[in-house]
Request: fold
Amino acid sequence: MKTEIKTALILGIVIAIGLGITSITLSTLDKESKTITIQDVNSKTTIDKSGFKIAPDLVGISYYLNTSPGELKEQIKDKVVLYDIWTYSCINCVRTLPYITAWDDKYEEQGLLIIGVHSPEFEFEKDLDNVKMAVDKHGIDYPVVMDNEMETWKAFENRYWPRKYIADHEGYIRYDHIGEGGYQETEKIIQQLLQERASSLGIEVSEEKSLVEIEEFEHTTFRTPELYFGYYFAQNRNQLGSSEGFQPEKIVKYSEPGKIDLHKFYPIGEWENLEDSMKLESENGSIKLLYNAKEVNIVTENYAELEIFLDDEPLPNEYAGKEINEDNILRVSEAGLYNVISSENSASHILEIKVKGKGFQIFTFTFG
Reply:
């Protein structure tokens, strides 16, 4: 036999053996991963839960909405529980609520319990009436607990708004998602854990496959980051463009800027510097900002009339936010989130907000 033929045969045998070993190895890895993943809930494979944490108790709760402490304790038993850590002035949290309320409607009778853990970012979000108003506004019927001292937040070792944890009917946290998005993945986990619960408890439930269909907000890739007006909240961020800078607990007279840089804000007039916000101390004032986004929101407190300008012109209708009236005026009263700019495409613009109303307080700009 020629040397070339021998070499080819040997090489062929080596390749075949290698492929066989690779196939066996990949199959083993796949089986190992299935024993610790949620995908096995409908199989006979025992799920190893040794790597999962037990959901912590709800601690330090100031108020209970849509439930009571005793009722909630009973509701949690043997339920698949989705813990939604949120706060009502957070735009990222608000965008997730249509999905969460839809899941509540769809899966409550199958054994899903949703608990909204309201952990406030700003002081006004600790107010019971403010949170009640937000719960009513967004059609939330599931239990909401007010975690005003952030004790439950800390028990979950959390650092983000919003965040969703899902615990199975035995209390093990089986899913964790930070921020917006991942809605289909999250709902599939809900379905799988409900099937696992039904199998464990000997309950007959329909094997649901359809998913909630809601148009998801599409973020722009390049956009201005969140801008904080409070000197404490803005630590280590160079977001205030005015030469006067932050002056903690002082009333500062901010002058008209000579130039405006991208991603920075410029208050004009007399503003008191507070740790979480700025408060207008003159009868009138304004805020200028060069931003890049398709959506601009503000978080404010106290009554004021805001007149909006874009690139030195009255705000065009195609850019007008949801709460702006036909006279190009945004009247703010309740403490919370207001949409200023809403457009189809992302672009850079100079935004000017002329404020009429001493005592007006602004906490943050957020963008989409």
